[in-house]
Amino acid sequence: MKKALIIGGGFAGCAAAHQMSQLSGWDITLVESAPFLGGGVKTHWHGGHPFTYGPRHFLTQDDRLFDYLNRLVPMRRCQEHEFVTYIEQDAQFYNFPIHKDDVQRMPECEQIEEELEVAHGAAAARNLEEYWIGSVGRTLYEKMVKGYTEKMWMLPEARMLDDFGWSPKGVALKEGPRACWDSAISAYPVAPNGYDDYFDIATAGTKVLLNTTITDYDLEKKRAKINGDWHAFDLIISTVSPDVLMGPAYGELPFIGREFLKIVLPVEFAFPENVYFVYYAGGEPFTRAVEYKKFTGHKSDSTFIGLEMPSLTNKLYPYPIKTEIAHAQEYFENMPEGIVSIGRAGSYKYIDIDDIIDQAMVMAEQIKGGGLDHPVPIHGDWFRDVAAEMRAANAA
Ligand SMILES: Cc1cc2nc3c(=O)[nH]c(=O)nc-3n(C[C@H](O)[C@H](O)[C@H](O)COP(=O)(O)OP(=O)(O)OC[C@H]3O[C@@H](n4cnc5c(N)ncnc54)[C@H](O)[C@@H]3O)c2cc1C
Q1: Atom of ligand 1 nearest to the CA of 257
Q2: Distances, alpha carbon 346 to alpha carbons 34, 39, 136, 379, in Å
Q3: Which of 14, 291, 349, 352 most suits a substitution to test ligand 1, by most atoms within 8 Å of the C-beta?
Q4: Mean pLDDT of the chain
């Protein structure tokens, strides 16, 4: 039997364990520093209400990924939900993605219409600010995006984000339906404990060590010191930030984190029927309020709201800044053979649950094909290219 070590038991570690367990001949150990699996997607309870840290609904354009998860933990579709943003200067809630119809309700309506007329597009944009101004004009950008972005990333200037090839919702200005994800699958597990059964199913064939943090690594020899003893592996799958795995040889990789505030309200529902969460783009100390019952289907006379406040106390969002991504790339390029780095921190990329399952699938395909004699930073464009090549080869 070959031996694999998985570092971290969040979604990425569990998805990796599941994929590895379906390849024959691997003895798998997963090490998780927390007392539970699932990372931020684990379901917790407050006043009888189930919740995760952040919305964590499953969003994907890829039926294959939805089918995989839905087979293991049945999912409830929630296609209809709309996001809204509170703009305190207007004392108004507007749709997000920005909706064309809302422009009529904005005090600067005429100015915005003029700017939309001449918006030249985002093709030549060099940073997030140019992307948005090119897409929707300066007034809408400053009202709806700039302040929110600076708060969310704790940055003095939103334009510091220059890996801007995405708009968070895939569209800058929407027309037609208000549901945010009308072109994607949006779903949440039916079970009251959310995704938790997935973490157990995925790791059923794996030796799981909770409350365990690896203190020393010898990556060249693929060895790790676990609970005081050195163990050697044939493969190490890391889901932690590469600067944690390798030591900060190429500089510390910055992340932004979140504090989480819990509030139970004495009403059955606080938000309108199709509103599951609200963004706050102004001076409020929080970025988002989520009404969990909308996702979980929990029945109660009260409702539970989670507020997310940007913070430096934990590492949850890698910065979409090219210089930082280049630092991460240095780690990936210098990773010894037989080390795979996946997951949000492990890829140093702002990816979601669906991308993470996809990464684990691609990784397992590579291992099956014997293609792990080269370091495999499953990261960014490289990952997308390999995934596309594999699908094309499989389809042929
Ligand atoms: C607030 C928030 C809201 C989100 N909402 C959504 C959403 O609605 N939909 C969606 O698809 N995605 C969402 N995401 C993204 C998605 O949930 C994450 O990308 C995904 O869960 C990350 O999984 P991971 O395993 O890479 O990381 P994590 O969940 O962070 O797991 C890493 C694990 O490694 C453990 N660990 C860390 N260091 C060590 C160590 N040295 N030794 C052992 N263990 C260690 C940690 O305890 C943790 O359990 C959200 C993310 C955040 C932060």
Answers
A1: 53
A2: 17, 14, 34, 8
A3: 352
A4: 91
